[in-house]
Specification:
2 copies of one chain form a homodimer. With 476 residues, chain A is α/β, with parallel strands linked by helices. Chain A contains 11 helices and 26 strands. Chain A has helices spanning 41-47, 64-73, 95-109, 127-142, 187-196, 210-220, 222-234, 240-250, 256-261, 285-288, 347-356; strands at residues 7-12, 58-63, 85-89, 114-119, 146-151, 162-165, 176-182, 199-209, 267-271, 297-299, 302-305, 311-313, 318-322, 327-331, 335-340, 367-370, 373-380, 384-391, 399-401, 405-413, 416-420, 423-427, 432-435, 441-444, 451-459, 468-471.
């Protein structure tokens, strides 16, 4: 039996990072952004496994809040997307509980499984090297070690945690033993690490036997272990969600590094051969994206004069800049962020402020992806809201009712099939229809090209939560 | 007879300055912006005359392109607005032709008239002082002098032209003689001007007898003079516009300073007692607007952390800034501008670039004022355009037809009266109607509150110039 048949991948995708606001939002965290490479970081993470771990061996751990959006996000993989299992945490509790929860699902699939854990929001371009490194790590995992993937530093980075590796080899093993984890160093310490050569960046990628990591949970995080076993008994039963919620309400938030890897005696470190970036903040893009001749990274509808070493992310709107140096400018349809590079990490304060003041700009974008397509809020007023709605061919929205608003629909491309109370009819290009308040209705694209409609809502209350769903193709 | 009865005011409003882009546009130049004070600079300029020059003695000189918008802009003065005469230049030719053209209109009203010339886009807050200074200038004008208003410098400004005044008084006059105009100085020269005390900023405000300035045109700008007399003969006849166009196609572009005031021997300078600013660029706002405790000027939907000495003009969209120093940020619904203060004058290069590339963002705003109200383009696509249209109570759009688009209208506030072919009907809140292509139609607000409709246009061509007008309350 091929060793690879026993590997299950666990992709951690619960992060709701604010560091890329306003591009990232509560409902569209960094892993779902297309900031580096041809696709989003999450989809790149899934594709990276292509060829050596089949999709039915892939688990994605995320929060309940993000789960539906993540499933929608994976629709690009077509009918195979359903093979990926999405594990829902009631809320984020850092990596130890997330990995713990995943481990009992993996064990249920195969008690002998190997478990490859990786973040969903890091960048690895060299897929073949990655695959080779995983194969190399199997040797250690098979011998009941926890294998961490270390990245050889190429600069004195102060933003990463480091792992110090023991110089003397372990008899009979290619991989070396981890000596200790080291917190983010200051610049001088980082320089010395770079010189010494046995310090590696902690990539957050791990490989181990599922049986081994569960034994280590039992030993070093017994409270979490007991919770996991309680959940484990319920897997596949009607009690599963309830058990998970109860356990999560009681467990601590802790990283796998602190909870297990610093304590375990059986940790090896593999020196990864691939380039890697955690794409941790806006300035990190300088390491992974191409620059123009003045050191700028420029995207979108931007016009610039004499800018230097700046990151300028425009949107459809025009962004005009002159004489910028070491700045970050990020424009989105409803919010723009401007800061010197060295201070972009303070963006979280902005996001906190927005949350505190009940503003929406931290949580949702003007355009929201849905399983059936997407909608864009063109304008929201006191008693009205205007949306452009795009429905993919052969998809349909849920059968629904609104208690506080009526809706006018005008078709601007494609053909709509509309259900309204007991009637059903077609609305063609340049035709319109009307859904009165408290009327059951459904919107559907029966055609082969995207259906676009303009929706004008009128009512006392025009928020998204005024919706009762009766039937839904997407189980919402 | 009161001397003031003979004064006519000429407000020069042809400027299409780009220095306040993206707030200013081709169709909404600086004089029509509300950047300083309670109202737009143009309307402040008109109000400044309130009490000593009646509106039927006020001329506004502007370009044909801007004339309709300027008339709409003056609607706030109610039925009196019609008393203001708007003189249309075929195109801008600097101040000498504009003043020359106005002078023959003024002469026709009263050959003995005094003519007070002033820019439309400068800031003077102290209206009483201004009025007193005008009264003082009359003395010189009555004695056949050209009186220029000089501003006592309070700092070594390098952005203004200066006027040097002769120390020795003219026998029998309070005002002193102008010795010469001086170009914008460098910092050191400006400092010496400030010390010497007989240098004044050129405010562009002048007072003279219309007969005197016309004599000076005859003497120093004979070509322009001949053109003006040709136009003069046609005033009030059907040939008037044609004559103006012919003359304007041949005359040179020149300022009144170079053309007349530098050459004339009869120029006096009044030392103005009022504070003044030409509000010439973004950093000039620092002189005339209040700052927060960190020296920032902040407007609109902005959230900022630790910014210093920056000008941050937000719009409805969220603008988040961190750690800015001496920056200018200007956000509008369709364009954002970002630059260090010291380089904002280069914004004209951005505007040139936009023009060259046929972009719209230099010329129109997303919201466009109309005599009957306004419209805002919410989105424009390949074959559709969505607008929110606001019609003021008792106003109506022209009776019109579109050859390439049909329109769906949904009322989101107020009540609409719609004319479509031969029928006429009301469309109430939350109702809709449809105007097919090539159908004569008219939209009207018969009510007492603003009517708002959402218009969804469908068609091969959805530009503003697809319109044939049949009847129009506003003579378009």
């Amino acid at each position: 039996m091929n060793q690879l048949d026993k590997i299950y991948a666990v992709i951690l995708a619960g992060g709701s990072g604010t560091r890329f606001w306003p591009l990232s939002r509560d409902t569209l965290p960094k892993q779902m952004l297309k900031i580096v490479g041809e696709d989003t970081l999450l989809r790149q993470s899934v594709r990276r496994l292509n060829g050596f771990i089949p999709l039915d061996h892939v688990f994605i751990v995320t929060t309940e809040k993000l789960a539906q959006d993540i499933k929608t996000h994976l629709n690009v993989f077509g009918r195979n997307a359903n093979q990926i299992k999405v594990i829902k945490e009631p809320c984020g509790r850092n990596t130890a509980p997330a990995i713990g929860l995943a481990s009992i699902y993996v064990r249920k699939m195969d008690p002998e499984a190997l478990m490859l854990v990786m973040p969903s929001d890091h960048l690895i371009k060299e897929v073949t090297k990655f695959e080779n490194d995983v194969r190399m790590a199997i040797e250690g995992a098979e011998k009941d070690y926890l294998v961490t993937f270390g990245i050889q530093p190429n600069k004195p980075e102060t933003g990463y945690g480091y792992m110090k590796v023991k110089e003397e080899p372990v008899p009979g093993l290619t991989l070396k033993k981890l000596e200790k984890f080291v917190e983010k160093p200051d610049r001088e310490t980082a320089r010395s690490y770079l010189e010494e050569g046995n310090y590696f960046w902690n990539s957050g990628i791990f490989l181990w036997k599922v049986s081994k990591i569960i034994r280590e949970f039992e030993r070093y995080m017994p409270q979490l272990y007991r919770g996991l076993e309680i959940i484990g008994e319920s897997l596949g039963t009607e009690n599963e969600r309830e058990r998970i919620e109860t356990v999560y309400s009681e467990i601590d938030s802790l990283s796998i590094d602190y909870g297990i890897l610093e304590k375990s005696h059986d940790v090896l470190t593999l020196q990864a051969s691939f380039d890697w970036s955690d794409v941790g903040n806006w300035p990190a893009l300088d390491d992974v994206l191409d620059h123009d001749s003045h050191g700028n990274i420029i995207r979108g509808n931007a016009i610039g004069l004499d800018n230097h070493n700046s990151i300028i992310f425009g949107s459809d709107r025009l962004l005009a800049t002159i004489g910028l140096k070491d700045m970050v400018i990020v424009d989105t349809p409803d919010a723009t962020f401007i800061s010197p590079k060295e201070r972009t990490q303070e963006v979280r304060k902005v996001v906190e402020e927005l949350k505190k003041n009940g503003k929406e700009e931290h949580s949702v974008h003007r355009t929201v992806e849905r399983p059936w397509g997407s909608y864009t809020v063109l304008e929201k007023g006191d008693r009205y809201k205007i949306k452009r709605i795009v429905i993919k061919p052969h998809e349909k929205l849920s059968l629904q009712i609104h208690r506080h608003r009526s809706e006018h629909w005008v078709v601007i491309s494609g053909t709509a099939k509309v259900t309204r109370d007991n009637e059903s009819f077609f609305v063609n290009l340049n035709e319109s229809t009307y859904i009165p308040v408290s009327t059951k209705h459904r919107l559907e694209n029966p055609g082969r090209i995207p259906l676009q409609i303009i929706e004008v809502q009128n009512g006392d209350y025009v928020e998204e939560d005024d919706i009762e769903r009766f039937e839904d193709d997407y189980g919402r």
